[in-house]
Amino acid sequence: MLENVTFHNVSELESRAYLPGLRLQRFPKQVRESLTEKGRTKAAESSGCEIRFVTEAKSIKLTMAAQEKDGRVLVFKGDFFHAAYDLKAGAITTLQLEAPERFAEVPPALLDNVAFSSKVWRIYCDRFTAIFYDIDAYGFAIRPPERQEVPQLTMLAYGSSITQGAGALSHYNGYVQQAARRLDIDVLNLGLSGSCYCEPELADHLAERNDWDLAYLELGVNMRGTVSIEEFQHRTTYLLDGIIRNHPSKPILVTTIYPNRATYFHDITHPFRRAEEQFNDVLKRYVESRQHPNLTLLDGSQIMIDFTSLTSDLIHPSDYGHSRMGEQLAGFLRSSVDMLLAAQV
Questions:
Q1: What's the CA angle centered on 318, arms 317 and 320, to 5 degrees?
Q2: Looking at residue 225, what is its pLDDT?
């Protein structure tokens, strides 16, 4: 949190000596710089980062920018979509936000879901590196959301580009966000496009975090063809053992690889197809060996249930696919969420 604003899904507000503004980083610098070359660039993307605040002002000026490429931000008032803004790379842009007038025409109870209060402004960043400069409410007070104004539970999600939201026209429509919306929970989306490699530094970071209530891990698809079966087993064991050791009472759900073109290759000896089968078997054996009461293995084919929900690249879900996957995943997560909520009462 910085003064009167909360930065959600932001581990670090990075400042640069010769560049103004604060970069919204999902991972600390030492973690980002421990990843593969591609992973370092993907970890710098502010996917799923949000700027959140509450004010009685009818008009607000929010100044921000996209760094390396054009970006889009989606603005929400509570659970309600409000507006979308496109940012040009390298250009500082001031968004003029106007409070929705029609909220006053209906009973407040209709506006306030059990997830977000309708008082909360949420500026959601799609897949680009976002830079925050300033917020101005023309003299009205600005404050961070209070605990009861945001979801009571938070899910940490780590995985490939699919988890990051690739294939959807907006990453906000990714299946992880879709599942969270259906369950009225918050989400920390730490998906890394093409670079979910379970590096030890990243594994340690996930295990050491205490800002989540349940974890969802999509492991394997990025390591096909580049990591041996033995190395995959070593990395996933280190990752999962660390999370379980530090969070023994929290639900941890792991999924096998979602169906994709390699799952159905005509050539059953293709390296990708064989690695996929072997990686899935590694995850199954791990879960069976640990017999941990809060560790659950999900079958990816029970989440991505319709092959035509993929885009034509036959790996990433379309908007339709992400929606269906979100619905399926929410169903598998429901019992864990209900258990956690009951424990809070």
A1: 110
A2: 87
Residue for token digits 């604060």? Answer: 22
pTM: 0.95
Query: For residue 113, what pLDDT is reported?
Result: 72
How many Cα atoms sit within 13 Å of 253 on the Cβ side?
A: 23
| C-alpha–C-alpha distance, residues 284 and 254, integer Å | 10
What's the Cα-to-Cα distance from 335 to each of 154, 211, 251, 255, rounded to whole Å? 15, 20, 10, 16
**Nearest partner of 304 among 290, 314, 291, 293, judged by Cα:** 314
Question: Which residue stretches of the chain have pLDDT < 70?
Answer: 1-2
- Would you list the DSSP string of 262-321? GGG-S-TT-HHHHHHHHHHHHHHHHHHHH--TTEEEE-GGGTS--GGGB-TTSSSB-HHH
Residue range 232-266, pLDDT digits in tens:
999 999 999 999 999 999 999 999 999 999 999 99
User: One-letter amino acid identity for 82?
Assistant: H
Q: Residue 181 has which token pair?
A: 């919306």
- HSE toward the beta carbon, residue 165, CA cutoff 13 A: 25
- Picking from 260, 343, 334, 253, the residue whose alpha carbon sits closest to that of residue 292 is 253
Q: What is the pLDDT of residue 101?
A: 95
Q: Which two tokens stand for residue 208?
A: 């050491």
